[in-house]
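hi support,

uploading two proteins for the ticket. first:
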Amino acid sequence: MRFTPFFILFITQACYGIDTHTVNFLEIISISKILWTVLFFIISYIFITVFTKILGFFAEKSSLLRISIKGIIPILRIGFWIVIITVMVKVIYNPPIEMLMTGLASVAIAIGFATQDFLKNVFAGIMLIFDRPFKVGDKIKVGDNYGEVITINLQTTRIVTPDDSMVVIPNMELMNSHISNSNSGELYCQVVAPITLPVDVDTQKVRKIAIEAAQVSRYIYLNKPIVVLFTNRINEHKSFLEMKLKAYVMDIRYEFLFKSDMTEMVIKELLNQGLISEHALNELNVTEI
């Protein structure tokens, strides 16, 4: 049991020139102090968990403040643990400064050799939390994964995809990847509903119908513009128009409901006014929602 502390102290002295004769860890550590440390750690963990869950609960109650509140939770979590660890070391152990420096140095050496990948993810997590390329509540795309950021931990980030699958991404992978952020901390974001149409359709009437369909949707955010764009496409020697109806949803969580709502209303109205036929839709491999 005594071999490990003295071995670490020997390595520390060789690397950092600290006099190990002036330091004795065994005078500081005792069974009672270890038990107090475990108890304090458990209480702290419960407090932080409950506190962050309460913040998350109130965040869900306010759509306007949801992203802002959830965005500060990772920062508060790190801040709490820094304070808690500092208090535990000072109050329970209160080591001399020489011993504290020796302990920190030896722990850094041991952890550095044993957990390089873990430390890379932790460092990347700290960078993500403070650099904030995205926040909890944002919709991001990393590689082939697109979804809402649920948690940002020190080692991993979790996102939920539209099909309700949880994706866990190591933070180092996020630091080395291109990240697309749909809303960048805002509650709203742009939604694009592509609709395939015959090449001879009346684009002026279609544009009017599309804008009206977006305006009457219950998910629309009217403070942003509605844009309709047409592009000519060719597939298997057949020409067709691709219309993109771009509008902003009032809450990022309604993104796909808004997209479906606009698509359904536009196609129904085009069919009702006779601007397109069901036969034309079938030829374009488009079915009514």
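and the second one:
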Amino acid sequence: MGKKYYTNKGSKDNIIISIAGVHGIGKTTIFNLLKKKLGDNPKFKFFPERYIKIPPFPFGSDDKQIAFRSEIHFLQQLIRRNKNITNFNNKYNGRVIFLDRTPICVLVYSKGLYLKEKDYNLINDMYKSVKWKEDCIVYLTAETDTILKRIIQRGSIDNTRKDWNEDDKKYLLEILSYYNQFLFSKTQTKKVFTIDTNKSTAENVIEEIKKIVIDLSGYSFNKYDNSSSTQKILKEFM
């Protein structure tokens, strides 16, 4: 049998959209909510941020060696994901592909963790060696205090993630600063859509993303919306 193609849009290319933002902003919640709503729709495909649930090194560590290893690990996971996206892209077209996190996050966090220059340069060289599959970025943002409240409310500071320093306000501000530098630099060529989630519910954010996807692809959501199964995720976001 030959390759399978989704033919409703003819030979239209896939659209690959990353859900991006600092830790605690709610991007994985939004990603999972979209997947709940649209996972049964063949027009949409979802790729997680990583394939290893419990990372071998804590993210956000003050220890520079551990921080370097954690970012190398994360970059390896994103490279693996990118290969899977490439394989999918070669087989199917006419899809909207959602990614949890943008690959740029590795550079953002490597800068925010103040890695040694030679370690950052190694990560940057590896990042640049990959032909990343990503067309546009949906960047979720909010005020710092709002993000910190979400981090605490979702119970992130537990035994598994206590070394990630997610509740460190200075660290959070550094990461936010570097996201702005990388996403909105003159050399950054991807389209970035910013959504302020400060006074929004998860459902509001989903509606904004729907508008973006409709503008980019012309696809309709209504037929495949499975709102009844998303209440738990909405509560987690809030």
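thanks. also noticed: Residues 16-237 form a domain with the Rossmann fold fold (CATH 3.40.50.300).
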